[in-house]
Please model this.
Amino acid sequence: MSERPLHVLFLCTHNSARSILAEAVLNHIGKGRFKAFSAGSSPRDNQQPNPLGLQVLEHAGISTQGLRSKSWDEFARSDAPHMDLVITVCDNAAGEVCPFWPAQPATAHWGYADPSAIEGPEAQKLEAFRQTLLALNRRLTLLVSLPPEKLERALLQGTARDLIGS
Model:
């Protein structure tokens, strides 16, 4: 593997919850071997990360600095960082036609329920975000713990798809 960190892009529809959580967690636990980004296929005008997601991250001791909602078009430009792995974390984004990614990264789909879709009291919504964060953390911990040879470009796609979800 090269000396630069493995670039991972997490995609969702609005880039306000699951993809933001995944970006923050991987940057937190990635030990410099990974650099995570997130984007949405169709973020709403003036979309911001969900405040409950930011609250759960902060409570877990994970930095929220620099997190923002953005379109996946930012990562399809020629001056964008080249991705090694693109992971969709919601079923809607998985079914959409993605832009052309320079360098043809490996891809995987890790579906998670949308915690922002939960109806009910704020405590129930907060718990949904916490559970999503825990599920993402479990899977990303597996990714981070893989030996370097499993992260080689030729093996990355199969490895990412095979990680056990929860």
